[in-house]
Every structure is written in C-alpha cells, then in structure tokens.
Amino acid sequence: MSEERSLNFLEEIIENDIADGKNGGRVHTRFPPEPNGYLHIGHATSICLNFGLAKKYNGKCNLRFDDTNPVTEDTEYVDSIRNDIEWLGFTWDNEFYASDYFDQMYGFALTLIEKGLAYVDDSTAEEIAAMKGSTIAPGTDSPYRNRSIEENLQLFGEMRDGKYRDGEKTLRAKIDMAHPNLLLRDPLMYRIKHEHHHRTGDKWCIYPMYDFAHGQSDSIEEITHSICTLEFIHHRPLYNWFIEQLGIFPSHQYEFARRNLTYTVMSKRKLLQLVNEKHVSGWDDPRMPTVSGMRRRGYTAEAIRQFCDTIGIAKRENIVDIGMLEFCVREHLNKIANRVMAVLDPVKLVITNYPEGQEDIFIADNNPEDASAGTREIPFSREVWIEREDFMEVAAKKYFRLAPGNKVRLKNAYIVECTGCAKDDAGNITEVHCIYLPESKSGSDTSGLTVKGTIHWVSIPHAKTAEVRMYDRLFKVEDPANEEGDFKDHINPDSMHILPEVYIEPALAAAQPGDRVQFMRKGYFCVDTDSTPEHLVFNRTATLKDAWAKEVKRG
RNA sequence: AGUUCGAUGGUGUAACGGUAGCACCACAGACUCUGACUCUGUUAGUCUAGGUUCGAAUCCUAGUCGGACUACCA
C-alpha cells in the first residue's frame, strides 16, 4: 500500500521550500483555465498536479478563470470547466476570476506609469511588430516611448474612458528594446477592446494582456507555486519583473512539459475546428480527448487520475502512447463493470436436441472480480444468437470456437457440439446447428468434459435490441499535428461505426445513461446520453485485449 | 543565427557519485465457463567525445540532436 515513490521535480522544490520555511511553509496552487474551450486530457494532467500538490502538502488550490480576452470567452465554457473539475474528483478552495482584479490591475498599471516604467504607445500593431526586431537583431524604441508621466497618465485614463478605438493605443511596459528575450522588449500591458465581457459587462474597454494579468492574479491570491507549461518559461523573467517593480507578493512560476498523446490533437484551436467543422458531434463527442468526451465515452475519473499519475511529470518533450490511457481505463473498468452478454453481429444457433418451447433460467455472476456485484438471471432457449465470427465451416488452426465436430461452452449455460449449418441460395450461412449436453449444465456440470472455447449468446425469444456505437481512434497517424499538410487529412474515417440493432440480454433493458458494462468478449461499453428506455444506445468505451485477433492478423 | 529548456529500452518515468529499476507495449508460457482478467518469464536503454573520481546516467568541458520563443491569444 504505502509503496515508496520518488518525488517528481515539483515535489522536490516544494519540499525544499517547506524545509526552508519559505512562505511560512504554506503551499497554495491554482488551476487557471481560460474559459474559451472545454477541458481536455492535458488540462486533466494539470488539474491532478495542482490539486494533487495542494492536497499532498496540506495546502490550497484555487480555481481561477483567466478571463482577460472577452472576444473568445464565454460562460458556457465556465460551466463546463467547473463541472469537469468536479467530475474528476477535485474541489477548489476558492473560485476566482482574473476579471475580479481588473480594478487592482488598473491600479498596478498606474503605479508603473508613475514610476516611469510604462507608457502609452500610439503605434499600430504592424509598427510595433516591425520595431520589435528579431531573435538576432535588437528592436527599436517607439517614438512614443519617452512621453511624460503626466501625459501617459492622462492618455491611459482616456483609454479607459473609451476615448479611443480598438487598437488605436496600447499601454506598454518600458523595459529594454534590445533585450535578448523578445518578451522583455517593451511588452504590451493593456489593449483597447470595446467588447462585452462575460462578467464585467461593459465596464471596461481596456483589458490587460496575459503577462500583466496572470502573475498579478497569482500575487493577489498569494499563490506560492504557480505551475504552468514549458512554453511559458520565457515569460518567467517578465512575470518576475512586474512583481518586483510593483513590490507585491512574490509568487513564483514553475514550468513542466505538457503531455501529448498519440493519435490525438490537443490544441484548443484544433479541437475547436473539429467541432465547428462537424468532424465530431461536439466538444463531448466520445472521440474527443476532452474530459466531457472521455466521460461520455465511458472513461472513469479514477482511470484518468490513474493515467495522470502513471505518466508522471517532467520537463522533457514527450508523446505518451494512448495505449497507456486505454490500459488505465480497462484496468478500472475490469474491477467495476458488470459482465453482460450482447451479440453484435448475429447468426442464429439452433440447438436441435433442445425441446421446442422449453427454457432454462441460469444464474450468472455479474462480476467475477467483485462478489458484491451479485447475480442475475439469464433465460435460455432452443434458438440463440451468437457472433458470426464464432463459427467457421472449416476451422482454422488454433481456432477453438464452433466448427462442425467442435465443442464449446455457451457461457453460463451448456456445452454444445456443432453439427453443421444451413445456407441460403447465395451460400451465406443462415443458421448454425448443434446439440447440447444436458449434463454439462453450468454450475452442475457432471459431463467431465473440458472445452477450449467459451462463447457468449443471447436467447432469441428473450432478446432485446440496442444501438451500439463502435468508437475507434479519431486519427490514423500517431502525431497528426506534426504530419505533412492539414491535420484533418488524417482523420480516421472509421472512428465511429454504428450498429443500429444488436441483441442484448433482457436484464440490460433497464440500463441507464452512464451505466458501464462489459459485453463479454467484446469490450467495455457505456449507456450514452442519447439513450432512452425505448431506444438504448451504447458507446464502446474500450476493446478487450484480443489474443485471437492478433493470431489472425499474424496469419 | 540569438535566447532558453531538454536528452535513460519502442513509449512514459525512476535512480540525487556506489548493482540502471518500474509501468505500458511486444514476445513466450501457465491458468481460464470471457482467446478477458491474473500469474511467470524474455527481448530491449543512459546522445557523442573527452575529463574529474577507486567508482559517472549523475559532476566538468566541447559537440550533436530535439523543442520553445519573434500574437493588441493564453
């Protein structure tokens, strides 16, 4: 249980800080999503990290919406983000919004202007870009760089008061136009946007940029460990510069490498494209790597947390095999999902020596991994559906399912011996014939026989039907974002295959949306939110490992 | 080219100067009323070259390779 685990680099930093008495030994993190999209598996990593660290070190973790760009942000996203975090099993200590601090940030800006460290620039975006220089050439000072403090104060006030149009002026920090770090070449602090904000409404027409909002928000909340992804590493000097010049609480930023997944795209921009261009049904399409998509797919929060824990955290580039995620999902589902029988691609099996009109009721364990899951009744009769692939007219080598002369067990029922099949005029197999061994009844087997194969089935007169959506990976290639051309060219055309009518055992008729089961020998499935009592819909969450399929593939 | 971060089996991650370990994948076998689960075993790794040291994945130097940065996005 208390297996010894080594610390990741952030835990080491935190433990050192605690040992040094930094911040009085206090640990306070935050998860800072921008409400402009749904959370995905990458965010889940960050959530597990930030909330996990706070929990481990008896600290706190805030949820803070980084809502400084009213153009792309929306309350729809706020709601989904809150919901997803809760579903993942985390509770935030405070819910804040960067927009809560707009007044304070405005005051911070005034302070910097008064210290001669910020100025209003009339240059256009193009001019600013041109003056920025490049990685190998220094930038040039803006002609407005040396305005007086008084003039800057007045112009900035006028910016706030709406006297100027979008883009007409900006507020910039006065640092160093020749700095080797391009971010320190007089970065923009405020821009004008006459836009309605989802929380502040029309109160503001100037909005702070990320760099002048994030660190300040961290500081206001007295965040001790501000954890973000590697691409912000160049921002750290700027993060520190603002905090130092302002003399406010010294939050510190730490960076880790975001996790990438094979056969997946992760950027919000690309995910938005998939949604807008209808390649998927929405943000919660079961093929999406979003938290809501994975939830609808049937993934459990435990599995996702386990995955985040398993892949760990580091600072190097990575692309995690999606098989790792699928493994975690199967591992958890194996423990909790009840076993049921469903026939996806049916062919009729007739048990010729079983009397017409007779039936048996078998009692089956719901979950061999969990005795507390109980049992259920399964009706049996003379004609049952079996999978078409569970019969071969001529058995391949190592094939131990039904073939003339072969014996198999019908799961939870009898051992049957195949006697042949019937075909239509076109040569298609229409039914498979067999005889059963009455003394091989499940639970009271006196036949003394052991058979190599066991197959699932559903009694034809008792069968119910359901729609099943067979999901597969959304992309055909490992790293669609880095492939030649458009990432959408690599979408897997078979990522969803709908089976409109499969046969399920009657006990399943009462299944409710969100229920997770294992269709024995076929995979894990969950009841979709589209499902109704009249029309059940199952999503395939994950396949089972299939040693036979591998054998067939090998030839 | 500048700045900056990184480099351990196919993948992810440990080892903090002292036996390169764990998980996934792959492969082989055992078990099996799920060809599932479980169990056992196998293959396979320290970017390169120097140096320090009794001893280097770890420290130093040089190089190689990879990523990130040059949005009025975050």
Summarize the topology.
Layout: H1 9-19, E1 28-31, H2 41-56, E2 60-65, H3 75-88, E3 94-97, H4 102-114, E4 118-121, H5 125-131, H6 149-160, E5 170-173, E6 188-192, E7 206-208, H7 214-220, E8 225-229, H8 236-246, E9 252-256, H9 268-276, H10 291-297, H11 301-311, H12 322-336, E10 338-340, E11 342-343, E12 346-351, E13 360-365, E14 375-380, E15 383-387, E16 407-410, E17 415-423, E18 429-436, E19 453-455, E20 458-459, E21 464-471, E22 496-504, E23 516-519, E24 523-527, E25 537-542, H13 547-554
Parallel strand pairs: 1-2, 2-3, 8-9, 10-23, 12-18, 16-19, 21-25
Antiparallel strand pairs: 4-5, 5-6, 6-7, 11-22, 12-15, 13-14, 15-20, 16-17, 17-18, 21-22, 23-24, 24-25
Helix pairs in contact: 2-11, 7-8, 11-12
The structure holds one RNA strand of 74 nucleotides.
State the helix count: 13
Tell me the domain tally.
3
- The average pLDDT value, as a whole number, equals 96
Based on secondary structure, the structural category is alpha/beta
CATH superfamily of the largest domain: HUPs
Task: For the largest sheet, list the strands in their spatial order.
Answer: 10-23-24-25-21-22-11
CATH class of the largest domain: Alpha Beta
Note the main sheet: 7 strands, mixed
Which percent band covers the strand fraction? 15-25%
First-residue to last-residue Cα separation: 43 Å
The Rg value, from CA coordinates, equals 31 Å
- Principal-axis shape equals elongated
Helix content: 25-40%
According to CATH, the fold-level topology of the largest domain is: Rossmann fold
Please state the second-level CATH architecture of the largest domain: 3-Layer(aba) Sandwich
The total of beta strands comes to 25
Uncertain residue ranges: none
